[in-house]
Structures
1.
Amino acid sequence: MRNLACSSAALIAVAAPGLVWAQTAPPAERPVEEAQPSRVGDVVVTARRREEAIRDVPSTITALSAETLEQKSPIESVGDLLQTVPGVRFNGVQSENLAEISVRGSGTQRATSADSAVGLFVNGAYAGSSTLGGRNFKRLDYFDIARIEVLEGPQGALYGRNSEYGSVNIVLAQPQFRNGGRVSATYTDDLQQLRLDGIVNHQLNEKVAFRVGAQVTGQGGGVYYNPNQNKYYDHTDGYLVRGQIRYMDGPWDVNLLLDAQDMNLPTFVNQWVVPPGRLAVLPQGFTGPRYDVPSDVANDLHQTVQRAMLTAKYDLGWGLLTSTTMAMQYHSKQNFAAAIDLATQGRLQASGQIGLYPLGGTTTDVKDKTFYHDVHITGDAMDGQLQWLGGVEVLLQDDDYTRDARTNPCVLTATSSICGGTPTAPVCYRLIPNAAACPATFPLAFGSRRVVPSEYRSAAVYGSLKYDIGALSLSGELRYSRDHKTAQQSDFRLYTTTPIGVPTSYDFDEDNLSYAVSASYRLSESSLVYARTGTGYRAGGVNNGTVVANAPNPLQPTYGNETTTSYEVGLKTDIARNVFLRLSAYTSRTEDAIALVTDGCTAANACGQAGTNFNINGGTIEVNGVEAALDAVFEIGGGRLAVGVNGARQDASFVEVAAVAGAPIKDSMVAQTPEWTFSTNLNYRRELTPGLTGFANVAYNGQRGGGQDTVTATSPFTPLEDLDNVDLRWGVLFRRMEVAMFVRNATNQVIPVLKLQQVDIPLANRYTRPRTFGVSATYRW
């Protein structure tokens, strides 16, 4: 484990996180930052940019507190935040840089140069981007959180661009006006990973409080191993730091936050699964190792983030003014390769096969700078019968994307030597005794480099009105957005300044009008029925990839906006004391749907390199679905049992397709949209003796049906694997000390999360992590 130096900074998070129901120990054992609501449905959220109970919001929304999430198991990824949310799926694909969130058939499907169709927000500030890493939260975003809010269905009117199928808002814990804190250690045995966390909250006086925290991770082992370099593909180490300061005086509530991340994160590894008789270069077939995968080239991911956020609230008397400003930059560099080394290639050639080029690989280098500012005012009139909101928003993003694709500079045969190195320092590897010498001058390019700087400028004005007429509530939301994007693309022969083709530039200038209208009727104090319609859009952009002249599908340089209109009806009700039920049904239609397709290249066909994914406006998508969720608390056996159960059914398909090369096939499924998702979470807590409390948690989530990729003429349907994941956690709480054991993937189900293939020929798979065990200890004061 390497030594890590951490520095702390001063600051603060967003305004009052609201009330989140959770199981908490008595005040003498654990300080409670906010009073707890009396009923499950009374959780307070900020879904409509004002605080209100979840049972009063006329749309599908889920809110989970940090404690509820940590009861399941340690939070290691965004998937841990979302695995119990109905209709939501997290596509991890082993690498956080490529991971993304799918809601209600959004199916972004590894769209490598598109924004997520789900809005990503931290403390209400937009945290996504259209470059690599921009469709997933950073680890910094789910460190020391207060809660997470998930809104399903189009949220374009209040949340703007890329909240087309929903939005996820992570609310960070903020300074409280009391003294306290915690320290914790989490050790995962199978990874030999140790994570240390520390949080200190201190009240300086009646007006000022601060909160500082840090997390340090070190890892000595792993599951996926590269024996050639004595490194693990799933290695994690590094640090997170955050400092916050909060000032409250009269009408003012001002928060300043500064934080940073510097981490080495898991990259991905593929297992070759080529069957015999299907590929000319591997006529005998080839199945590589799954866990100990040798490679002679770099495979890693390093990500840094720096962020500052200022939130100010001022009570005007007649309205509440809220200003949120965020400046963030991140740098993400990843290396990945074809998962074969020189020694393996030598064995393939010795058996008479051409084999695979062992020195190929890709490096992606992304730098993003984001500035976000939002100002809005909320207020009431007519004795609270009329509620109104008005706001303006600005987003500025600068991205620099570079992709190096390393390819074979010589023709590969069953008796050729392997060409490598660079044009100024060529290297020849003779792997078999009868191998022919490398050419004196390597005849082909060593690969290509694509450089894509881009600028994104977006501004919007928005507002909403809500009017109550007895038990009936009517509301409307409206937003006008203007988006402008410029991008330049230049391609070069790798390791040289020799251009490939002519540099190109693109200029986007589009506007959008999004709306939402809802009506709700309170059947009783604890029952609400509602109907809602709304729209949202996902901004278009530029494809980042490498042009290959002989690709079966030519790469398209640009793609335009997609827009979605949705209709939803629902019911929220208490069916018993602290038994809260939510039901909803919806239908949506997406025009100019952004679909990811491939250029059809592989390292084993005429292209000689891995395929390039790119985006097109593939046609029109229709999605239909139903969702149900039940949350309850029961007193059983002298303890308290909290139950969360949900399920969702969704059908998403292309009902119309565009007339372009590589377009989806009509009536085919939208990629990465399971037909069924479901989960159950059970948490039991009971006092064993005075001062000693025992607890146990069982979390299950599963999925059925759906397809992996967009189905095209050259990409057949590839089914998603059925998933059944069980996480267990149990332990004891003695006064302020908590000790717990946990098991991730208790049934040890290992399935492919990604299947790579050439037309219908399997090539390689990427898998989930097998079962892991661990222990954690936490002390609070």
Note: The chain is about 5% helix and 55% strand.
2.
Amino acid sequence: MSNFIDVILPIPLERLFTYAVTPEEAAHLLPGMRVAVPFGKSKIYTALVARVHTQPPTAYTAKEIHEILDDDVLVTATQMRHWQWIADYYMATLGEVMRSALPGAFLLESETFVVLNKDTTVQEGLLEDDEFLVFEALQHQPILKVREIAGILDKKNALPTLQRLLDKDVIRLKEEVYEQYKPKLVHYVRLAPHYADDAHLEPLLHSLSRAPKQSQAVLALFQLMGTGNKPIPLSDLEQAAHCTRAVVKSLVEKGILETYQLRHDRVSHEQQGGTQAAKVLNEVQQNALEDIRSHFAENKVSLLKGITSSGKTEVYVQLIQTVLDQGKQVLYLLPEIALTTQLIARLQRYFGDRIAVYHSKYNVQERVEVWNNVLAREEKAQLVIGARSSLLLPFADLGLIIVDEEHEASFKQFDPAPRYHARDAAIVLGKLHRANVLLGSATPSLESYHNAQKGKYGYTEINRRYANVPLPEMELVDIKEAHRKKRMKGHFSERLLQEMTDTLELGDQVILFQNRRGYAPILECTSCGNAPQCPNCDVSLTYHQYKKQLRCHYCGHHTAIPQGCHACGSVDLDTKGFGTEQIEQEVRALFPEAKVGRMDLDTTRGKHGYEKIITAFERRELDILVGTQMLTKGLDFRNVNLVGVMNADALLNFPDYRTHERSFQLLTQVAGRAGRTERRGRVIIQTYNPYHQILKQVSTGDYDTMYKEQLYQRRQYNYPPLVRIVKITFKHKNYHVLNEAADWFAGALRQHFGDRVLGPEYPPVARIRNQYLKHLLVKMDGRASVAGTKQYIAKVGKSFAAIAAYRSVRVIHNVDHI
């Protein structure tokens, strides 16, 4: 009887593929193991075993696998069920989920190697110069990679040369899979067993009397060993003895020392000193904790609405401690990598080295180590802190999931597929593991709050700050009036400058919030009004003064600052609008004595970019910090007493149905950074429209009124949380083909859904990377079957793909678009 396996390939194809295996391989293989399989003409991919069975495929002859890559399961059964839910709900394929979930080092793809064809006689005189170079290189080195050949030829593209050599039968191509992950091995040193006690020390040192450096190294090793049996790193010995590696090597050759290697994780979060007990909760926190536990007893998701600086983290610590004491794992989800820096330090005080961190700033080697530690239920990975990708780790026994700042839009994955929402996927993961789920925020999303109001989620509230510190005093400053009376210095009102001066004189810190990076969004000719545009996108280029360039924030295209206008030749160029870079420059000019920092995408690109800026601000090495929205997300600065919002109107005037909700959340969150200790903080919000309803609600902290007004408007126009939305995006380089294709798709959907289909319409930025875009919205109200709607959209998509003229149009599905 033949044996077969169904595998998931990391490519966007809907179905599983079947491969033949031997009975011995079938006995070894389990769902969740990796195998290398041939796919296409010659490519080899890493595939994941989904099922082992004895049913041959009917449509094709099953190929044999290339090799088995794992001795044990890499992906758990619960994890596979979660992946399947993500693929089904978000209209993605299992291959796309697999590619998104697994660290790149696990997704081995074959590399093409070039070897000489030993079965043919080569006539060297018939070879061209570049062909002979490759032929000669292969005689010295029997196997070469394609990129190595490109280096030999000093060409970017070596494929034409290789194709000619293939045609002449001089070379052969072979595909090989190679392992990308290499464990980090640390060198250690110890005395040979014969010299391991003090009695042999004196004769040993006497024998080394003519080699003082070696004698010094042996003495240093004895001192490092002390009374314990702790391994001694080779680097520590070299440092203590002030010797080189050559000295140690000589002692090893004499049989006096032995060296060995131990495997180490690249990232460790070891606590210096012991852990401390959790803080005693105040009455409000204790009541909230008991409420949350009662919701968990009813198997409900719990929503905790706690105002900024109310001590939500201390409540989380109590819940985490309970779950860890039961021997289960905890996942702590954060919307922003910047938050992990502060949170790790706080949680280490309570949980020591039981913490693992997982996010995109880690390299593939580090992510593999965290994955393996979580899978093996290592103690150093009992509490996992991470951004949305940590949701896809192989948890074995998950007991609690905390989604902090659950309202954040950055929990939603946009590109590439699967376009999942980490908060919603976390709730499903909790159900699969029978784990409790807690959502926390000072400004919950309308969806979560609506679910709490309906009784679907448990709900609890902390409505006063820890230690009864008062909420910051908010003030709206009318900059329209200030401009009219000429009371502005650059982009700063007199009121904001006065408060900044007072705050700095008291020795406190200031945060300035402007949600736009760069120096200015537009560089405009004052003669003809022309502004440089991105050649690939329908946007103007942003002016970055620091790098002296114009840059597109959509495709990354950049160019040097022009000396004159490209349209009329005038040299009179001026900037319009302002970003964080310009605010930083103005602050330095206005407060020359103050130490100023900036936190945006440009200053946090490095692996430790966030950590350096946050640590410097915490240590009061900076007086004023200018930043974008990454400053707003739950950071805890103890000495900030003033927050300035440079221009609130930029948030309010955006073409999106969530604009007012997001503006309320963002402004409330950034205001919450002020006055988190004894003294009451102040928040200055500069605006051209101080009478705007949202700004008034922010200044009074009136979340309930904002919720009721927004819910009323969403009910009027059928938007979430009352309906669900599938956004379908069409992409194509040809404007006319895109229009025809989008209209066809919309027409097919309208036959079934009628007026629940909106569009197709062009977005505000209708061309990105030379691809035109058009959007279509399908609304699903309470009467519609969510699964049925998605099935019908998928059915129309298959018919659409069958039309030759539209086959090149890319169709992207975004379920629960936000």
Note: The chain has a mean pLDDT of 87.
3.
Amino acid sequence: MASVFRSEEMCLSQVFLQVEAAYCCVAELGELGLVQFKDLNVNVNSFQRKFVNEVRRCESLERILRFLEDEMQNEITVQLPEKYPETPLPREMITLETILEKLEGELQEANQNQQALKKSFLELTELKYLLKKTQDFFETETNLAEDFFIEDTSGLLELRTVPAFVAGKLGFTAGVINRERMASFERLLWRICRGNIYLKFSEMDTPLEDPVTKEEIKKNIFIIFYQGEQLRQKVKKICDGFRATIYPCPEHAAERREMLDGINVQLEDLITVITQTESHRQRLLQEAAANWHSWVTKVQKMKAVYHILNMCNIDVTQQCVIAEIWFPVADAGRIKKALEQGMELSGSSMVPIMTEVQSKTAPPTFNRTNKFTAGFQNIVDAYGVGSYREINPAPYTIITFPFLFAVMFGDCGHGIVMLLAALWMVLNEQRLLSQKSSNEIWNTFFNGRYLILLMGIFSIYTGLIYNDCFSKSFNIFGSSWSVQPMFRNGTWNTQVMKGNEYLQLDPATPGVYSGNPYPFGIDPIWNLASNKLTFLNSYKMKMSVILGIVQMVFGVILSLFNHIYFKNTVNIILQFIPELIFILCLFGYLLFMIIFKWCQYDAHVSQHAPSILIHFINMFLFDYDDPSNAPLYSHQREVQTFLVIMALISVPWMLLIKPFILRANHRRAQLQSLMIQENATEDIEGGNSSPAGQKTSAGAQEAQDDKEEFNFGDIFVHQAIHTIEYCLGCISNTASYLRLWALSLAHAQLSEVLWTMVMKTGLHQEGWGGLIGAFIIFAVFAVLTVAILLIMEGLSAFLHALRLHWVEFQNKFYVGAGYKFSPFSFKHILDGTAEE
């Protein structure tokens, strides 16, 4: 449970594995998903590593699986396995290669045969229709006359007829061409042959299928008459250029009928063969679909294992694999058990050896999450992954983030809509997860479903506090205001009430306000008052300042836990204490004045209450001679002077003392290291080879290795930057929390405008037209509410709450300079969420 508040304690270990057992051990660690491997071959080229051939074989299998997936697309439904298969053993790769290569070969052969058969079917079908159309043409044109195309001066075409006896000497060419090429084909024929041809064409009614692309194609049948060998050669070249298919067509009708009968018989035989080929292809695809997901999982696991093995070292004897792993200390037992299982699975008798090693690099940061806390942890990590063992802001963000969002979004009605949307995603999360949508926007909302759920709950709460539901108020407990006494006194009569749509509420008027506060939230009668904004602005502005100061002070207090954990006494005395004094003496005192004024002054004496803002400004100026602004309490001058002096003292406390103490500590460490080196030199010259002398020599070497350059100027500048940033940040951050007030005001006003301009207008209509119009107006109101107030305003409040946590809250205690723990996990690899 402690790991929720602070990142897990990590350990770096060397693991020694027998070569035969390395594959199975890494596979078991991949199933466990709690180990991050270090790349020990950073300087080795990827193509020179030990298991590069195995990785290439896995990539070849992935290529075959992609080919099978493309073939099954839109034809066969791939069956999902009930559970992921176990990691295959290395020897199973040969079996898998044999199965997939055989399946690929048979499928490619079936595709080629099917393509060849469909091409033959297409050609025979074209020839069949060509013979029919040619026969019809010769039957209708019994007295064929030859027409020639010539071009007149206007660019138009005209026909010139020659005697019929010339037709007996004509040759002809028949074929098929794509319909979209027909116009260009006809035009070029006329130009090249100078009009000395006769072209007849007809459209094929039946659309055909291209055997390669499987797209529908439309073609025309043509027959060209010409005279002479020269024109025949020209026509043939033009047909070849337009990729027109020329078919042999007999001159005599009997021969054409005989050929047509033979073609019909061939088409029937082809249809039978094509059907059988397609059935064989479907059987192959069904076989692939039944095991495709299992094959993909196995190949991905094998490839991942070999990729990890390429990150390991192999000793000179080629018998031992050496790996370095980061893992949580709490899971050391599970990792050892997984290594033993891998050893047993491989049949090895050598137990894997784990030895802890020291590392100069900082360990990775690992925060355990579940499906509820993952969204909040992602918000924190988006700013920066926490430093190792640094306090984790995510547990506090679970409450503060949706609450600050709700302060800006506070509307009961909109919160209910948001809550229902989040509940739908939460209750149907298993079904929605199984769909594996690739829509990035949807995945963003779905991954934050629990965050949206809490935001909706808190928005309902703040909406009830504001007494705001779609810009309307609830009158549950009855208003604490009464106008009856004013009627008796004659101040408010009927004419006054009719002549004023809005009236200003004054709590100080005798008899109007009962003095009892509304039991929960804001009195609903404020929704009718003209000074509603004046009242709510003051209330929400002070509430924003209070929330901001409380959260900032809480952030400063959290920094104390970091200093205590890292045993940094210097930071506690010279950083935390002056920071806390500074913020409490100035802004903590501001919070005190706000609450004190609320408690001290009621409605009857509020007109004579002093201004907190003027008091706060005069506090810095040491100006207490303002007669128009009476003091809040006795001895206020002495208290405020003391607080300002303490705040001023804390600034040089933070700025000056820490750099000098760090320099003194560094010099002391240098003197100690020099003394150790001198003792070691004396021991070596004296020939001291005792264990104590060796220990002294080792200590000297360690002191020399750990020696770091100390730059006093850099330390001082860094401390000055931190001091200035903190002092100015307290002021700017407090002002930044006023966005809670501004966003809340904007949301309430937008909601009221939408109700007034849309819904209220529709409800004023009467009769049947008004009834129908009410449905239309409500639909428009609902769409605008979702689009503007829920989505746009919700995203705006979300971004502002994000900024308040990243900048105003987390910068008080959170460095975020670490790097994320990325374990080797088959689950992450198969889900596609593994990091590079």
Note: The longest helix spans residues 253-309.
4.
Amino acid sequence: MLLRTRLSTLAAGVVACCATATVVLPAQALAAPGALTAAPAAAPAKAATDPNAPSAPATGARTGSEEPAAPAAPLPAALIGERLMTASADTADTAAADAPVAAKSLAAQPCTPADFAARSGADLVAFIRSSTPDCVRGLYSSGGTDPGIFKQSRMLSVAAAFKELAAGYTGDNSTGIQQLALYLQVGYYIQFNHPDATGPYAGELTTAVRAALDAFFAGSRWHDVSESNGIVLKDVVWLTDSANVQAGYLNAYKRILDDYDNSYNAIPKMVGAVNSVLQYPLWRGNSNPDFVKAVAADPSVARSLADFAINHKDLIGGSNEVLSTNAGNDLARLAGSGAAVEPLVKPLVKKVLDAAPLLTPAAPLYVHTAVQANWYNGGQCSYYGTCNLPAKLTSVVLPKQLVCDNRTIKSQALSAEELATVCASLRNQDALFHDVVKDNGPIPNQYAQNVTFGIFANKTDYTTYSWAIFGNDTDNGGETVMDATDPNVPAVTVMYQKSWNVNDPARVWNLNHEYTHYLDSIYDLKGNYPTQMSVPDIWWVEGLAEYVSHRYRGATDTDAMTQAAKHTYKLSDLFQSTPRNSDSTRVYPWGYLATRYMLEKHPADVQAMLTRFRAGDYQGGYAVYNGLGTSYDADFDAWLDACAAGACYNPGPTALFDTSVNGATVTANDRSVQTGSGRITAWHWTFGDGTSSEERNPSHTYAASGSYTVALTATDDTGRISTTPTTVTVTADPVTLPACTEQRADAMGRNCSRTGRTATAGNLDYLYVYLPAGTTTLKVTTSGGTGTAHLYYNADTWASPKAFTASSTATGTTQSLTVTNPTAGYRYLSLYAVTDFSGVTVSTQF
């Protein structure tokens, strides 16, 4: 049976000196710019689910964090890839942006399910149109508790009103058409999940909704590239999927994909509309037999997906990366839609895979496409070269390996010496762990006695590859994935290196923290992760990992010391911490403080708790510390004062500093302290842009605006070190370079600028530059003037929004792109006028 329900349903509960060139300019560069040109295993079994399940609103991907994640069971890579599809650059405030343009005073507008249930016909339509979109969205959570809200008679009234407004659609939500589309979406969702509340939906409703959608797409204003149209178009596209009528709108989906260019990136709601095509009908339609038949009859939508994924690889690494990767996801799933479609689509999947090599900036496209191809079209893995994908990725991305007793270290960039350093660190940590927890050996029937470490060279590569290899989430600073109760599930702990991170062995971020999680699950916490977290014990699970890691490395937990001085929580409050009621500050620095206090002040209570946990009696373990009530709160509060005053500082140096920012300049003030004997004799600063300083209180000016990690390493006279980072955000003035001296007004040169660049909306201002042999980096920037001008680069032909290999597409005229290791020869630039622009300065540095 074909699947339509998302994978998340199937996996419920599963736990990165100059002379002017004298060579002859190529004819292409001498000619006037011409027309824009385009740049060039067996599948796992899946549960049978109803193919007609409409989708509810996606919650979106979590923002990335450098905190480690809680331990978890590995997840299918296809499920993680599907979760990542929900990310979007459409981040503008929904409630404000989606409000009807002509709305009357909505502050007093009632908005409960009963308010909708009390109306029908024209009254219901008027009420929906005058409601806010968020009000209508709120009906998703109504659960059908008010019978009749979405009965077919009401849905028919709304569909008829939608059709009437669609015929005169004005390119915005001034008529409330978006709310009608939303109401119909929600109706389909409620009818599927709570059919008793709606009664059956007959073909009459499908006909009415299709007529309304036909009227909308027959107009011309849905082509508008604007925020106001993007708001409406997103939900209308979604409705085609909710109503399961995707087969009728392939041309609309193709038009949206084919029309997209990087000018959309300045219009988040249009980006959201494009992503809704990829996230909903072209992802889920593959399980609709009518959609599959339509694609078999006209596979051009597959070509549009392949071209979109490849032509927009420049989005990868930016906020709109999801557009390219989602196109790859959709195409891969489409290839597995049946015998009539597979031969038409699989060459396009292969084309996408070949266009996105591993260990290049385009690799996320390869990984997403390969994962979904293996899941939905696994029988063709030999053709795609993706059989046993985790092993293939491991061999390419993590080639440097070492077996260290029961630990296998698989790394991307660790040298032989660094591998040995990591191995020694892990071996020596065991003794400290056992001394801290006073265990009696491994818990019986806790398996996973062997553990694999996946260590990536940086966060970008961790985010790109680890989920497809190890089944871990990547919006974190590392994660341990294991189920110690299942002998067939290997234990894995995944993490990455940071260049400034000299406090951790071989600069591996969270190495000892994550290893503590593994040990804790073998020696202290019986059962799998859901069992272990069945009571409020995250203070212990994360607190112990922080405590052992800092103590073992001889590092002061500076975050915890800062928090201790604030007295934010009572100990009795921390004993009730759960993942749902705790942010990262409560989980990590406060978990460290609670765990350290209990281990050092009340070890008998800790042992009583662990005795219960080791037997699998989590309620009994919880009763040990919950039963303490508030009896330790006053002592804990006093202990926090002593701790923050220095009692909890590790012997040796602790790197501490303040920063102040003035434009692009950061001034650092060292406040490092020495605990015990010795004195601090050296200070080493890294500023996150490749520069460093050995001054005690340095100032540093950045060349470009942005957020950077400033890290201080303090070293004492015995060689002990301490490193502490912070993030600074700076605003840099554009670099002023002399005027380019080349005769042609469109010729750039080395370390020079052209001023007064101008173009009207939709047009291009073309330039070129000659790069001599030996050029290692070309940096192109634009600044000043008015309007919005996007910057494009192409190594081979005139650059444009449809022919480029690098780009910068921020709103306004401040753009910057860098090309590394370019070959010698003529290279091409352009400024695309998203809106009229004038007075813009273009600079090239190499």
Note: The first helix runs from residue 7 to 10.
